[in-house]
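>> received
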Amino acid sequence: MRVLVTGHQGYLGTVMVPMLQQAGHDVVGLDTGYFAGCVLGDTAAEPPALRVDLRDITCEQLSGFDAVIHLAALSNDPLGELAPQITYDINHHASVRLGQAAKDAGVRRFLYASTCSVYGAAGEDLVSESAPLHPLTPYAVSKVRVEDDLAAIADSSFSPVFLRNATAFGFSPRLRADIVLNNLVGHAVLTGQVKVLSDGTPWRPLVHAQDIAAAFIACLDAPVDKIHCAAFNVGTERNNLTVAQIAQFVVDVVPGSQLLITGETGADPRSYRVDFSAMRNALGFEAQWSVGDGAEELYREYTARGLTAAGFGHDFVRLAQLQGLRDSGAIDESLRWVSADA
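>> returned
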C-alpha cells in the first residue's frame, strides 16, 4: 500500500516507518519538524515527506494514498494542560479535518493513534474497548472526540480504526524521556536513582514502540471488515503493572541503582488495567516485548549512545523542546513556525 504517516519524525514514527517499509509498504511522511533534530545516535534514512503543519493539510496532498496512519499530535498530558486550546486545535480539530480530507481524496483506510488513557480512573478491573470512557486530561479528551467524529463520517468507502495504545516504552532514535519507563531508566543511568514521584500504586498498561508499529501493520494487512470503525487496545496483559513494579524492573537492570518512592506529587487519579484480547482475537496480534526486556534495551542504548543530562532533560522532553522553540522565537504562541526557513 501507499501509506502516509503523519508525525513520522516523532518517537513512534521514527520506529514505525522502517518497519512499514520492511513490510513492503510505500511510505511518505508528514511532519512539521518540531523534533526532527532531537536525535540520540543515528536514524534510518528519511522517507519522502511533506513538511507541513497538520492544520494546513489539503485534500490534494492526500490524493493517491491507500491509507493514512495518523500519529501526529501534541503528545502528552503536561503539554495539554499548558496549552489546552492548542491541544484541541491540533489533536482534535486538525485530526478530524485530516480524516475528512482523506475521505474526500479517496483514502480508504485511516489508522488513528488513540490512547488507553481514555479510560481514566478505571480501578482494578480489566477494561475492554466497550468500557465507559473517562478521559481526565485535554490530551485524552481530544482522543475521544476524534474517535467519535471520525466514526461519524465512516462509510463503505472510508474505514477508520482506532488503536488505543498503552503507554509506550522502548528505544527510538527520536527518544521520549517523558514517558514512564524511558524516564525511570534514564534517571537511573544518569543519577543512580530510580525516582518515583507518586506513591507508586497507580496501574499503567505499557507497550513497546515496536509492538505499536506491528499493530498498525496488522491493521493495514487485515480485511477491511475486520477493522472498519473498530477500536483496539494495543498492548499485552502481562504489562499491566503498577508504577512501583515498573520501577523495580529498572532497579533490576541498571547496576547500582536505588529505588526512591517520594510520593511528593500525591495520588495520581489515572489508574487503569487493560484487556487486550479484542485485537488478539480479531487479528491474531500479540505484543511481544516485556517491560523487563524494554528496560534492558533502554539501558543498553542509553549507555552505548552516550545519553547526557542536557539531552535527557530538554531535547527528549516534548514540553521542554516546544517551550525552547517558542522562547527562541522559532515558533509563535500558536506553535506555528515563524518563518518558512525555520
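>> The chain has twelve helices and 14 strands.
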